[in-house]
Every structure is written in structure tokens, then in C-alpha cells.
């Protein structure tokens, strides 16, 4: 019986490999990977993460949950495939492209002014006293800033630095307005800015440098 701790050895490698340095040779965009219920599956996982953040199971419930979670992990472990073919991060029809490690966001517009999205930090993202953890705010900025940079320079970028100014509390379970944009492009460097608002109130600002990867660059 699996202990639920998946290892790379258990990940199925698919022969055709689009990896050419960086993240992937071509941006994988799909609405089909993982099947029609992948969104519901992701949402159940997010609900699990939210519940676990606040859970205090009595011992008999913990016993039962451990058994059920071990069975779920064993089942999931058997479905693992490699990074390049996994649905997570490619499902543009789902919040945060189906990547449950990101705070769920929905991109509402991409235009010459940058990327506009609605992001909702959930119970899982709690820092303290109903506010989002600063690290999760940075995660949202990294992904949405990387998106704006990629659009501006038409290529895959990696983050060289990213700073966040936390201007006021970022609330949980509230749809927030996020905006990221390329402020200046200089060769391979994209100086990128961002902001997250709760209505009119500025929650946080980002100042980051993303660098376009050279062909084949890791
Ligand atoms: C559509 C889907 C969108 C999805 C978006 C997802 C975004 C997620 C992004 C990430 O999270 S990436 C993961 C976190 N980042 C990393 O792990 C990066 C680790 N660092 C590196 O790999 C390299 O340092 C890096 C690729 C960033 C740069 O190395 P390079 O060898 O390609 O560039 P180089 O060091 O020659 O620097 C190029 C220019 O940038 C400048 N530079 C590099 N790092 C800098 C820095 N930290 N601060 C200021 N300037 C910097 C450098 O001085 C130089 O300036 P000049 O061209 O003017 O000479």
C-alpha cells in the first residue's frame, strides 16, 4: 500500500517531449486535458485545502480521514504523468489555468495595457486574522506578472526579482481586481508592474524584472 508520498519514479514519462529549455517550447493551451470534469476535480481539491487549513479533527475522525486520504493519494499516484503533459497550468478555461498551487484567478482581459484578472484568496491562503498570506500574494503576482511579460516580449520569461509592497490587508474570499503590465522592455528584460485592489482600496503593488529565456535555456 502506498504511503501517498509520490516520487518522481512513479511519474509516467510520455515519449514525445516538447521540452526545449525553460518551461516548454510552446505554451500549452488546452480546454480538454484531464477531461470534462477536471474543473470539478480541481475545485474539490481546493475545498479540501480550505477545509484542512481550519480543520481540527478529533482522533476518531482523523483515523478515518487518514485512511480515506491514503486511498485517494494511492489512486492519484497511479494517474501521475510528466510535467509537460499534465493538465495543471494548461487549462485556460479554468481558474488559474487549473493549477491548484496558484490562488484562483480568472483573466478578464489581455490588451496593450496588460493583463487584467479577478483573483480570490481563499481559506487555504490565510496568513492571519482573515488576511491573505503575503507569500500567496507574491505567487499571484509572479504568475500574472509572468503572463504580462510573456505577452509583452512574446516569449517565455523567468523572474529575476519580484518585490511586493503590501499597502493594506488583502482579504480572503473576496474577488479582487489584479492588473499586471510591462512598464518597460529593454532587450530580454521586461520591467513589470502590478497592483491588486479590493474595490478602490489598493492592497498590494508589484515591481518585478522578468527575463526572456534564450532558446534552450533552462
Ligand atoms: C502564459 C503563461 C504565463 C505563466 C507565467 C509563469 C511565471 C512564473 C515565473 C517564475 O516563477 S520563474 C521561477 C523563479 N525564477 C527563477 O528561478 C530564475 C532564476 N534565475 C535565472 O534563471 C537567471 O538568473 C535568469 C534567467 C533570471 C537570468 O539569467 P540569464 O543568464 O538569462 O541572464 P543574465 O544573467 O545574462 O542577465 C540578463 C540581463 O538581466 C540583468 N539581470 C539578471 N538578473 C537580474 C537581477 N536579479 N536584477 C537586476 N538585473 C538582472 C543582467 O544584469 C543583464 O542585464 P544586461 O543585459 O543589461 O547586461
From TrEMBL:
InterPro entries: HotDog_dom_sf, THEM4/THEM5_acyl-CoA_thioest, Thioestr_dom. It is found in: Cell projection, Ruffle membrane; Cytoplasm; Membrane. Residues 1-37 are annotated as: Disordered. One of its GO terms (molecular function) is hydrolase activity. The keyword Hydrolase applies. Residues 131-201 form the Thioesterase domain. It comes from the Bacteria. Residues 1-11 have a biased composition (Polar residues). Signal peptide: none annotated. This is Acyl-coenzyme A thioesterase THEM4.
Amino acid at each position: 500500500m502506498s504511503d501517498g508520498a509520490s516520487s518522481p519514479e512513479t511519474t509516467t514519462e510520455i515519449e514525445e517531449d516538447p521540452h526545449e529549455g525553460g518551461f516548454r517550447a510552446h505554451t500549452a493551451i488546452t480546454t480538454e486535458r484531464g477531461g470534462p470534469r477536471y474543473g470539478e476535480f480541481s475545485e474539490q481539491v481546493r475545498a479540501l485545502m480550505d477545509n484542512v487549513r481550519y480543520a481540527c479533527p478529533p482522533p476518531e475522525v482523523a483515523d478515518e480521514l487518514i485512511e480515506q486520504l491514503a486511498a485517494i493519494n494511492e489512486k492519484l499516484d497511479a494517474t501521475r504523468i510528466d510535467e509537460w503533459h499534465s493538465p495543471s497550468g494548461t487549462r485556460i478555461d479554468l481558474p488559474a489555468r487549473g493549477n491548484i498551487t496558484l490562488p484562483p484567478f480568472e483573466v478578464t482581459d489581455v490588451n496593450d495595457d496588460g493583463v487584467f484578472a479577478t483573483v480570490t484568496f481563499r481559506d487555504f491562503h490565510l496568513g492571519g486574522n482573515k488576511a491573505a498570506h503575503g507569500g500567496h500574494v507574491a505567487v499571484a503576482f509572479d504568475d500574472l506578472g509572468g503572463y504580462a511579460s510573456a505577452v509583452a516580449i512574446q516569449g517565455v520569461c523567468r523572474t529575476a526579482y519580484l518585490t511586493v509592497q503590501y499597502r493594506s490587508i488583502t482579504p480572503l474570499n473576496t474577488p479582487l481586481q489584479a492588473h499586471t503590465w510591462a512598464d518597460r522592455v529593454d532587450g530580454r528584460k521586461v520591467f513589470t508592474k502590478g497592483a491588486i485592489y479590493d474595490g478602490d482600496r489598493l492592497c498590494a503593488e508589484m515591481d518585478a524584472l522578468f527575463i526572456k529565456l534564450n532558446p534552450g535555456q533552462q
